[in-house]
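Hi R.,

Here's the input for the acetyl coenzyme *A complex you asked about:
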Amino acid sequence: MIYSRISGTGSYLPERVVTNADLEKVVDTTDEWIRTRTGIERRHLAREGETTLDLAEKAARRALEAANVAPGDIDFIAFGTTTPDLIFPNCGVMLQERLGCLGSPAFSVETACASFMYALSIADKYVRCGESKRALVIGAETLSRITDWSDRTTAVLFADGAGAVVLEASDAPGILSTHLHADGRYQEMLYCKGGVSRGLAEKPAIVMAGKEVFKIAVTKLGAVVDETLAANGLERSAIDWLVPHQANIRIIQATAAKLDMPLEKVIVTVQDHGNTSAASVPLALDAGVRDGRIKRGELLLLEAFGGGFTWGSALVRF
Ligand code: ACO
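And here is the predicted structure with acetyl coenzyme *A in place:
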């Protein structure tokens, strides 16, 4: 039996740090409101001219180095993003060119904050069926480009960054299962106005019914946690680390409570990164790996929830 195993992780954050105090000068908000409602204290924003692909390339090279894999040996690229450099070609292809692993499949997956979970699930299937030996999975965003900086309900939440993992074929697990979901009835609650076929808005911008999104996110993430445990015949206590989507500390706390997990067993980066959408889970994973908390052999539960709605999980023996 072939499994896919995460052999390396990497991430990259733009150098520019914007604190809550900085945002107080941009919109009618306070550091206290942002911290108590979301847990966010600061975030990284790309400088002018710095693109999603630029961030992704740096994260990818770090993941490749950690995995000890040469860029040219990658045979599959799944790139999760909602903020691609161009409408086409897709960011996966552009990254392939930069890394020099030409010829093999390279594509982008656009399922908002769940894009990395979807990309990981697809890459896992290709490795498991033997068609890919070494896949690169990316989550990267420049959400600052689709943020309405005059809307205090969203401007304080979103940020930029990139995370990456290398998946390699292995005799031992690896990714034990992935579970993906979508429910298109909720499109209006969280979307980016402006589109190609509908006509480009003057300026694309995220629109969100925060309170409603919050409630449904907590319910759906709780359900996908249960589904993941049941599918693998595991008790909640089996999970060593929860690596959640970093949208809001209160959503993270609710999911941890569902797992009966103390926050010390949850990788939390939302205070430093804000909501980086597709990049959020691989950024948190890389943070936990590089600071030595997550160790080889441990059992990780990754999960994310985003616009659509779309959501998903992955159970990973690291
Ligand atoms: N600063 C100060 N006050 C604010 C701000 C702000 N930045 N934003 C809103 N307020 C005000 C509101 O106007 C409201 O005032 P009112 O009571 O006078 O009407 C009050 O604060 C409360 O607003 P709520 O929206 O009810 O605040 P809530 O506690 O729900 O927190 C938040 C808002 C943080 C957005 C929360 O609902 C949330 O995190 N939602 C989920 C976000 C999420 O998970 N998104 C999914 C992924 S994102 C993706 O897919 C791209």
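One thing worth noting: The two ends are 18 Å apart (CA to CA).

Cheers,
M.
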